């Protein structure tokens, strides 16, 4: 819970600067790149978060990363601040919270559709259109395949879950049979 609160706080601060500069995509890309490197390379995460290293050494590591990805001065300063405040471990959460703020600004929401088999492009478009109609927002849909649902689909957008899987229908049938005994 504390991580989410801190991540939101930092994301909102950067979001307000991005709004002034009209640089949402640039800042989001930079945050995503840093978060990806931290998650993919344990040595980088260690170099940015390990309290055994002095803060100035951790700042040099972050400066090297920022320079490598040609980050703007605002992003560079933001990343430096995050390291100096010993919040570098929260960068993946900050990047995610920042993207959520951008999506809300643009009236976009992220959705997931899970099916037992890969969906055709036509069916995927129909699911997306239905979710957009229900939510009133543009839905960016990602697809997953999970054979354990047997058939049908499970669509998730934010807190909304539409479960039309055969697995859940069988589970409901099982519960109703148990209840009538």
- Computed over alpha carbons, the radius of gyration is 21 Å
CATH topology of the largest domain: Peroxidase, domain 1
How is the largest sheet built, in terms of strand order? 2-1-3-4
H-E order: HHHHHHEHEEEH
The CATH C-level name of the largest domain is: Mainly Alpha
Instruction: Report the portion of residues in β strands.
Output: 5-15%
Contiguous runs where pLDDT drops below 50 for at least 5 residues: none
Q: How does the helix and strand content classify structurally?
A: alpha+beta
Biggest pleated-sheet summary: 4 strands, mixed
Count of individual beta strands: 4
Mean pLDDT score, rounded?
92
- Second CATH tier, the architecture of the largest domain: Orthogonal Bundle
Morphology call: elongated
- CATH H-level superfamily of the largest domain: N-terminal domain of the delta subunit of the F1F0-ATP synthase
Instruction: Please give the alpha-carbon distance between the first and last residues.
Output: 42 Å
Supply the number of structural domains.
Answer: 2
Helix content: 55-70%
Task: Specify the number of helices.
Answer: 8
